[in-house]
TrEMBL record:
HAMAP family: RRF. The gene is frr. It holds the Pfam family RRF. Keywords: Cytoplasm, Protein biosynthesis. Residues 21-182 form the Ribosome recycling factor domain. This is Ribosome-recycling factor. The keyword Cytoplasm applies.
Amino acid sequence: MIAEVLADASSRMDKAVEVAKDDFATVRTGRANPQLFQKVLVDYYGTPTPLGQLASLQNQEARTLIVTPYDKSALRDIEQAIRDMPNLGANPTNDGNLVRVSLPELTQERRKEFVKLVRTKGEDAKVSVRNIRRKAKDELDALKSEVGDDDVARGEKELESITKARIDAIDEALKRKEAELLEV
């Protein structure tokens, strides 16, 4: 029973770490990267649809990305969704067949803003890991009558080590992203 609670908490924490890494990837550095557009939702026939399902994304140059829609009627909606995306500063242009997205050069001030944004995302991820820990701890406490105090205490120590490892993984990913952002 304790092992099941720990395994569930561990897998959910792993997912939280992966979500944090994906969130970090959506914050842009100096290069155009298709992952930047991972969270762009396009209003496609009244339904918010991820951009990756509506178009192919290709790097043309360091700061230019080509978005080729599968359905040409969605061109204007794709262009508007990219323009409205916060923290991107992208300038999309539509030539009738595809959308060319030019990303401006990052200034030092903008880089620092992105570092703050990444730190906020990292803190949110840590909070989610801690919430998973709290829920698992409550489940372990509920098992005290069935398995005994000593086993629960061992389970809680194991839970703390699992939590620390996941928080350290988030911190490491955060450190790498900050270095990437501040690199000129």
